[in-house]
Automatic annotation (TrEMBL), chain B:
NCBIfam families: oligo_HPY. It comes from Ruegeria alba. Residues 6-253 form the ABC transporter domain. Belongs to the ABC transporter superfamily. InterPro entries: AAA+_ATPase, ABC_Ni/Peptide_Import, ABC_transporter-like_ATP-bd, ABC_transporter-like_CS, Oligopep_ABC_C, P-loop_NTPase. Keywords: ATP-binding, Cell membrane, Membrane, Nucleotide-binding, Transport. Its main location: membrane. SUPFAM superfamilies: P-loop containing nucleoside triphosphate hydrolases. This is ABC transporter ATP-binding protein. It is a peripheral membrane protein. Gene3D superfamilies: P-loop containing nucleotide triphosphate hydrolases (3.40.50.300). It is found in: Cell inner membrane. GO terms for molecular function: ATP binding.
Amino acid sequence: MNTLLDISDVVVRFGVRGGVFRSAGTIDAVSGVSLKIEEGQTYGIVGESGSGKTTLARAVAGLHHASEGSILYLGKELRNLPETQFRKLRREIVMMFQDPIGSLSPRLSIKSLITEPFRIQGMTDRDLDAEARRLLQMVGLPPEFAARYPYQISGGQARRVGVARALALDPKLLIADEPTAGLDVSIQGEMLNLLARLQDELGLAIMIITHNLNVVRHITDRVGIMYLGKLVEEGDTDTVFASPQHPYTLALLAANPEPDPDAQLMRIELQGEPPSILRRPKGCEFHTRCPFAQARCAAEVPDWQVKGAAAHRCHFPSAWEENRMEKL
Amino acid sequence: MAVLDIQKLSVSYATPRGELKALRDVSITVPDRKIVGIVGESGCGKSTLISAIIRLMAPNAHVGSGQVAFKGEDLLTKGEAQIRALRGTQISMVFQDPMQTHNPVLTVGRQMIDIQYRDALSKAEKRKRAVDMLALVGIPDPEARLNQYPFEFSGGMRQRIAIAMALMARPALLIADEPTTALDATLEVQIIKRLRELQDEIGCSILFISHHLGVIAELCDEVVVMYAGEVVEAGSVRDVFHSPAHPYTRALLECDPGHIKEKTRNLPTIPGNIPDLVNLPSGCIFAARCPRRFDACTARPAMAEASAGHGTACHLIGMEMTA
Ligand SMILES: Nc1ncnc2c1ncn2[C@@H]1O[C@H](COP(=O)(O)OP(=O)(O)OP(=O)(O)O)[C@@H](O)[C@H]1O
Ligand SMILES: Nc1ncnc2c1ncn2[C@@H]1O[C@H](COP(=O)(O)OP(=O)(O)OP(=O)(O)O)[C@@H](O)[C@H]1O
Ligand code: SF4
Ligand SMILES: [Mg+2]
Ligand SMILES: [Mg+2]
């Protein structure tokens, strides 16, 4: 298999101004992330709200400037690529945005919105009415939706319009930021099955950001867990779900609410508040909230450790097992 | 007494193809100090229902009939000014799209101070309340963050700020339209816990819309299941999740990937499409997709009791009882 996307040590920095931030100057919303996505693969990114997932995705899609590191797409460096050159690549690399309605221009009809990629790419030979019908059908919306405007459709329908628009040009890499948030489980299933089919037929690679752990477990090949702008665990999805090593991963997997009011959940309470990105904790950045932290965690930054088909950054990855034994 | 009592509400949208009947005879009750969840197919009318309650409807929307009683008074007969006075004080709202709550050109702090305009507090006190509220929903550096604009926050942060703002009014009724879609599982659980605590402290009721069945199971006391503009089942969370009576509810629960232990790339779905809301089929609204459809289903089923306090609109109910 070919590596489609090779991200290494990417940093995305934002300037911040005013108030207390005046002294800070900048924050690293993404702070040194490396990962690889193979052709035809699905890579899941999960993690704390505000941990830099959207920012990373936008950097790959050329919508944020990466201050450091490299983003290779089929061997070609995307970082610092001028917008005029990036535009051609937008046939192959497409992004689906997190806000379904907010990301659709309210003045354009649904037909204009889903066929806009053809116009942007100057593909004037296309029959846009036919394309609109094809794309709407693909995402399970009736043809009459072509004439509607974004405020005349429901949240989940807007999400599906976003999927149609993203798939218009048969991309090679789809970056999907929460593509199924706001969909009921049946339509969520339809959308994910559609993506799986396109993947089989066209070799589409997908970078999917989602908080829905059930989705991640079923459809991704690999997964990366983000915390405070960095990956804390990364690897084969089945391996990570079967034996999560990093305590944050563990807390995340244990938190997943079960569709049963009487479910007995073994939850792991995170301590304290989410840390400030302005004053990153020393040592392991998770130590301020980690239920298993020890003195070493506050002093030393843990290195990547490989375990089976996954890797993690934690000094005491098996602490939770001992902890569980104690509880039993 | 119920805080919110919706009876036989019908709402339609004028479209070039004719009236789109988005809600038909919908009845939902939110008891005092209870959390009621609404689940249902995308496009089944959940947001339409909310917009009708708080009267922020699309220009082409029209309330056909029904009542929306809030603390015993019908909101549908109230004037615009009276409704406006209720919104943001007695009834707070978290919208599906957080950008609908936030003004993009004002800092978050400014917006959080502005919504306290009714309170006789100094600016510093209002600012302090805003900081406390942000901290409560887990926003780091709340003090500094107040100076930032909405686009400088992540999707989940914007959602949490919307929740914080809705709670600042200490409303009698909080209506939340999918407020946790952008939250990771640990935060979601934490926010649910905070919501429950605040609900207890403020003594409010919550109407909570979500597609996440796990969240509904964890947060809500009661749940209402909607399909294509109608209520098809309602009852306690335990009754509905443990013994779903309507075939749509059963299908929905079966589709939840949370229930599927074996890894699969082919996720279950409910075959077929939702009916055209302009040209409605006669009979049961779910019939075209129902695996248990039979002769009686060509007539529209009325709401009937599956067990005490657990109702469903399906002809199977009568059948099973006589059988
Ligand atoms: N344009 C911007 N300017 C300044 N700060 C920003 C900007 N965009 C994001 N940030 C900050 O960067 C951090 C990461 O945000 P990001 O949107 O990438 O998070 P996320 O992981 O996608 O979270 P969520 O799951 O809540 O969507 C946050 O602290 C956010 O406030
Ligand atoms: N202004 C409008 N004009 C015409 N049709 C509309 C309008 N607003 C909504 N609709 C339609 O009314 C139906 C109900 O929409 P609503 O937004 O209430 O659904 P919902 O249950 O909130 O769905 P979701 O879970 O996807 O947000 C949908 O079929 C939608 O397309
Ligand atoms: S009334 Fe008939 S068609 Fe409708 S849900 Fe019940 S069994 Fe199915
Ligand atoms: Mg995001
Ligand atoms: Mg909605």
